[in-house]
From TrEMBL:
Residues 7-123 form the TniQ domain. It holds the Pfam family TniQ. This is TniQ protein. InterPro entries: TniQ. It comes from the Bacteria. The lineage of its organism: Bacteria, Pseudomonadati, Aquificota, Aquificia, Desulfurobacteriales.
Amino acid sequence: MAVKNFTIPSSFLNLYFGNYQSVFNGDFDWNREDFVKALSQRVGFKKERVWNLTLKSYEGYLFEAQKKFNSNKPFINPVGFRGGRNRRHGLRFCPYCLREEEYFRKEWRLTFSTACVKHKVFLLDRCPECGEPLTIQKWKPDKFHFHCWKCGFEFMNAKAEEVPKESKGIEAIRLLYEILKKGYFEFEDRVYYSIAYFKVLEHFTKVVYNWQKRNWGSIRIEEENIGVRLDKKKKRLYYDAPIKVQYILFTVITDILSSKENLEKFIVDNKLKKTELTRDFRDYPFWYKKFVDKYSDKGYAPTLREIEEAVKYLRKRGLKINWINLRKITGRFLDSRKRRDVNFFFDEKQIQG
Ligand SMILES: [Zn+2]
Ligand SMILES: [Zn+2]
């Protein structure tokens, strides 16, 4: 057993992690200090090395550290472990990578890992034989390679579909890996922490995917390239989208965020309001703040037309039509004493300064 363990350390790790199902709620790519310690003692790896194999190592780079253990993190595909196996397709693989070195790469759990940057194929997120989500810690005793727990298909024997050469998606994934690895990114000749990039990247999955702000040339181009359309499911989150939809989504968003010019063009072409640019951020990153804050120039008062739009928006959402909300929505300063022209939008009771 031990010899095999060291020739295929990953299967050992996976088998080993499998024993910890109950402790880790079934998502063995996550980790806890005591577990890492136990594993490093048992296998003889340095603690840092074991740690580095877990998704927890993305903390501080991809998302913020949290004291409370919680496996719902941005860009980590949920596996939906229940009753001894994964119910969701959160685990992916490249069969050609498995043939070269048989272990499951940590980055295959990331939502933007939709294709293999080395072999330029789409990753697979299910058993090609029976369609079952992967549960690689469920191991049949007669097997030596990773296989489907249900039908026994060995994943390294799968075929994967090539990514069309015209597509920019592989470059996009490479860029995201690079930012994650380096821990910083550059924007307008300045350097910022990677986490500040990923926060905005996540926000833009909402902007493009859920709010359907899709006035952007490369969306059409990539939809053509891949032969799939970004669908119109408003409520589904980006990590529940099919893998090719995710591929297009991240290709497009990295393109939008690639320069000041692009970001500006996207905002203008889609008539994005400041609230839409900043909503849901607890505190929005500095590089981005610097950029979007100009959309709330206090010296510039909104036109009646813009206020009309804002009122429509509030009504649609069932929100109160008052000064506070109007200021929020337009992202601009509105002086209640000077803007009597706005009054007629309000219900009598709601007129407040
Ligand atoms: Zn590969
Ligand atoms: Zn199968």
